[in-house]
Write a structure and sequence with these properties.
It is a single chain. The protein is of the alpha+beta class. It is built from 4 helices and 6 strands; from the N terminus they run αβββαββαβα. Strands 4-5-3-2-1-6 form a 6-stranded antiparallel β-sheet.
């Protein structure tokens, strides 16, 4: 498994693994925001992945998106690959509501992140776990709730 870029580790919590991707939770209570990071070395773009990995990434993204819709009933789900600041290939999945602070614009740069507390983080993870079930190899829950 390649290392996850330090900027992602600074802003996110590693919460689990799909077959191809590490699943991260952005540490910002403002939005349920998850990131898929394909476990491949030196990838910056989706087209650089082999065809099988491209297809697996799309399967995992769709699976995550469906779980986010079931868990959080968003008004819109923003899915994006940017990489302008963090060059490592990563795929954002951001739950959006018409009353969120950045609506209807993008979430990037709108306001400083507000880190999760133990309870709010636990509630978000519990909702996602209910929707995703065993599709993800979850990181130990007690580590996430204590961190």
């Amino acid at each position: 498994m390649p290392d996850i870029h330090p900027a992602l580790l600074q802003d996110c919590l590693v919460i689990g693994r799909f077959p191809l991707c590490t699943l991260l939770l952005m540490d910002d209570v403002t939005y349920p925001w998850f990131i898929l990071v394909p476990e491949r070395e030196a990838m910056t773009e989706i087209h650089q992945l082999c065809e099988a990995d491209q297809q697996q990434l799309m399967r995992e993204s769709v699976q995550l998106a469906k779980a986010l819709e079931a868990a959080f009933t968003p008004d819109k789900l923003n899915v994006a690959v940017l990489g302008n600041i963090v060059p490592q290939l990563h795929f954002h999945h951001v739950v959006r509501y018409r009353n969120d602070p950045a609506w209807p614009g993008p979430v990037w740069g709108q306001a400083p992140a507000i880190p999760y507390g133990k309870e709010s983080r636990g509630a978000v993870l519990a909702a996602l776990k209910t929707s995703l079930g065993d599709a993800v190899e979850w990181r130990a829950t007690n580590q996430l709730l204590i961190s």
